[in-house]
Amino acid sequence: MHTSSLSAEEAFELLQHGNERYASGQCTHPHQTGQRRLQVLAGQQPIAAILSCSDSRVPVELIFDMGIGDLFIIRNAGNVVDDVVLASIEYAVEHLGVSLVLVLGHTQCGAVTAAVAG
After folding, report:
1. Using CA of residue 3, residue 18, residue 15, residue 84, what is the dihedral sign?
2. Contact, 96 vs 6, CB < 8 A?
3. How far apart are CA 61 and CA 52, in angstroms?
4. CB of 89 within 8 A of CB of 49?
């Protein structure tokens, strides 16, 4: 799948379908073979860039039923955007051709709770 042929809407739809498979226990575990590892040696073509919390309960590839090379993920506690995160997102858009940037939040985020508490 070449990213330049996917619109943001199409990429989002793929993520939604993957999450539906995950939530229903029907994961297909795509792109997790030795052959896939060899394919991505030549370069990556992720379908989306995702800013996610570092929380270990939010394994991004798993909850979207995606595999190696499918997602460009930036993780930190609380999904904070600083210069480094912004540069990573810009890299994904400008150099990898992703059309979708998704910020993935979750419930019971300790970083957000701590920030709100001051």
Report:
1. negative
2. no
3. 11
4. yes
Q: What is the pLDDT of residue 39?
A: 94
Q: What are phi and psi of 51, to 5 degrees?
A: -95, 120
Write down the pTM of the prediction: 0.90
CA distances from 1 to 40, 70, 71, 80 (A): 12, 9, 12, 30
In the block, residue with structure tokens 């979750």: 106
Predicted confidence pLDDT, tens digits, the chain (118 residues): 444 579 999 999 999 999 999 999 999 999 999 999 999 999 999 999 999 999 999 999 999 999 999 999 999 999 999 999 999 999 999 999 999 999 998 888 888 888 889 8
Query: For residue 48, with 0-12 CB atoms within 10 Å meaning exposed, 13-18 middle and 19 or more buried, which class applies?
Result: buried
Task: Give the Cα separation of 59 and 56 in Å (integer).
Answer: 6
